[in-house]
Amino acid sequence: MAGKSHPAFKRARLETSKTNRVQRIHAHLFNHKELVCKALEQLESDWAGFCFVKILFCNADKSCSFDRAYCETRRNVQENDADKRRVIWIPDLFSVSTVQGFLDNYEGIGDQLLHKHLTAFEKLAKFLDTISDTNKVLHKQLRDESLEEGQWATIFATHVIRKLAVYSEMIVDSSSSGVTLDSSSSDLAECPCECKTVIKIGDNSMGHENVWHGSVSIVLGPRTASTPVSLDDYGFSEICNSAFDFRSGELEKSQNQYISESIIFAFAMRGRVVPLVAISKTCFKIYMYNRVNDLLYESTTMPLFVESVDGRELNQTSLIFLWMVINQSYFFKGVQTSHVEFNYKANLQDFLGEKRDIYQNHIQIGGLRHVGDRLVKFIAGMNKGKFLRF
Predict the structure, then answer these.
(1) Tally of domains in the chain
(2) Which domain holds residue 227?
C-alpha cells in the first residue's frame, strides 16, 4: 500500500486540493454571474474593438520626451480601401470564452486552468463583493473639483487596478502631483483619499536619453525589464506587466504620447506584448505594440463610468475588460496569424535610423528624470467609415 510520501499519493492530494479550490472560486464568482455574463455578452459584440496604426512620420530617432513625441499616423480604419478597414473585436484578442466557460462548466474547464487563472477569477470575485463601496469612494473623489491628476491616478490605481491584478506589485511615479510622501520612508506614500492605504512610489521613467523617454503614472507587475524572459513567437509570457498613464482631457489629443509610451514600454519589457492603458477621469483606451511583427494596436475609447441614481458607478463591461487587460498573460490570445498576414505594420523601423540598436538593446526603466525635451507635438485626426471583421 502506497504511503503518504509516495508520488501517486502526493499527486492525488494536489489534484484534490486544486479541485476544491476550483469549486470554491467558482461558487464565489457565481454569486456575480448575472453581472459578469452581461458584461461578457457585450464584450462578445461590437461594443468595442481595436484597430492597427501605421506611423507615417515620427521623431523616434530624436532625443525627445513622451509629451513632445511627434507621430503622424493613419489607422487602418481610415483607409479608403474597404478591405483595409477591418476591426479587431475584443474576443479576437482576449479569451472572453475562458471566463464564460468557467462560469458555465467549471468541471470541464477546471483542469485546463493555471493557478494564476484561478487567482485572477478570485481577485475579480473579491472586487465585485465590495464594488458598491468602491463606487462610493470614486464618486466622492470625482466630485472634488480640486482633485489633481496625480491624486486621481493614485486613488484609481489603489482602489481598482491593484485589487484586480494577480501581480499586485505596483509603483506610482514619484513625480505625480498630489502624492503625499510617508514621513518614515522615501519610497512610500499614502492614498490621497481617507483610506490612507500605503503605496509604493518610485521612478517610472523609461526609454533612453538619445530617443523617446519620459515617465508613466503607474507601472504594474514585476520589474523584470532588465532580465531576459522566455517568449514565444508572438511575444507571449506568463509574467503580467502593464503601464497606466493618467491624463486630463480627451485621450485622442494625446495619441502621440501614448504611442511613444507603448512602443518604449514594449522594448523595455524585452519585446513582450504589454498594454499601455491611457486613463482619464471619464474613459480609457488601450495601446499595445508587438515588436516581433511590428504591429501597433489601438483600442476604441471606452467609458469608465455610467450615471446612476446614486451617482457615478463603474461601467461593468469596462471593468471586466480592464480586469482581463491587467491580467493579460492569462487572457490575451497573442498576435493572431490573420493579423500578421493582414500586414498593416506600424513601420517603426523606417524611422529609427542609426538609433535602431538603442531600441533593440538599450531601452531602460528608471534613471531618466534628468533628461530634458525640446520638440513639439503632432495631433493625428480620425476619420470614420464602415469596417470589416477579421
Answers:
(1) 1
(2) 14-389
Cβ atoms of residues 55 and 344 within 8 Å: no
Residue 382 region by backbone torsions, left for phi larger than 0, else alpha for psi between -120 and 50, else beta: beta
Residue 329: inside a domain, yes or no?
yes
Residue 8 lies in a domain: no
Q: Which residues contact 201 (CB under 8 A, 6 or more apart)?
A: 171, 172, 173, 174, 176, 179, 181, 187, 188, 189
Query: Which of these, 275, 284, 266, 278, lies nearest to 324 by C-alpha position?
Result: 275
On whether residue 131 sits in a domain, the answer given is yes
What are the mean pLDDT values of the chain's consecutive 10-residue runs (390 residues total)? 53 63 93 97 95 97 93 95 94 94 81 81 97 94 85 90 90 73 68 87 92 92 43 40 73 91 92 88 94 95 90 95 94 94 96 95 86 46 48
**301 within domain boundaries:** yes
